[in-house]
Specification:
The protein is mainly beta. Helix content is about 10%, strand content about 50%. The relative contact order is 0.24.
Length: about 200
């Protein structure tokens, strides 16, 4: 089964910016006694075994120990309710790791898959900041870090993140996340935003 997805990642996690789980490739614990994260993937273009999934969005919800490499993660998936059932099924097959590619690399870390839910997902931009809203209980606003040359500041050599190996810094100014039993929030939290391209 051939597939490909291209789009943009918008991430918020419970660490203070910028989370050590990422820059250390999971060798340094989170800044709290847990790691919770919402990884939002928009799909600008994509096809999964003949199903066009362009225009869809999805969220990977993660609850893990502070040292993420220990595994035993609780992971759930939210798919935009604006997509069709066929699109949701196709995206679930990719995000479960069943079709290979970057999501499959997370498989050994998964302890409990907590299911799939459908909720509206929207991303808006205002004055350089992006706000991600999922249903009526999750929202976070991030702002890409721009240097004097007008370029997004990036982390490179990130081998354990599904949207790596380069991640654009986008610290989250404010956050309230409550979905699938995972709750966190606050101000000045870790965040990333950058394009991703997957295939399997």
């Amino acid at each position: 089964m051939a597939w490909n997805l291209e789009g943009t990642l918008y991430e918020n996690c419970s660490c203070a910016a910028i989370c050590p789980c990422t820059w250390s490739n999971m060798t340094t614990p989170a800044t709290n006694d847990f790691c919770n994260a919402a990884l939002v993937f928009t799909v600008a273009s994509g096809e999964i075994d003949g199903t066009d999934v362009s225009g869809c969005s999805m969220v990977m919800m993660i609850d893990s120990p502070p040292l993420m490499s220990e595994g035993n993660w609780n992971v759930g998936l939210i798919i935009d309710s604006g997509g069709s059932d066929a699109q949701a099924e196709a995206l679930t097959s990719v995000m479960s790791g069943a079709l290979g590619g970057p999501p499959a690399a997370l498989g050994p870390l998964l302890g409990n898959f907590i299911g799939v839910e459908r909720h509206p997902i929207s991303i808006t931009t205002d004055n350089g900041a992006h706000t991600v809203t999922v249903g009526d209980s999750t929202s976070f606003t991030g702002r890409p870090e721009i240097n004097e040359a007008g370029e997004v500041v990036q982390l490179c050599g990130i081998l354990v993140h599904p949207a790596g190996p380069t991640l654009g810094l986008a610290p989250v100014e404010s956050s309230k996340v409550s979905a699938m039993g995972i709750e966190f929030g606050g101000e000045n939290l870790s965040g990333f935003s950058n394009p991703y391209s997957w295939a399997g």
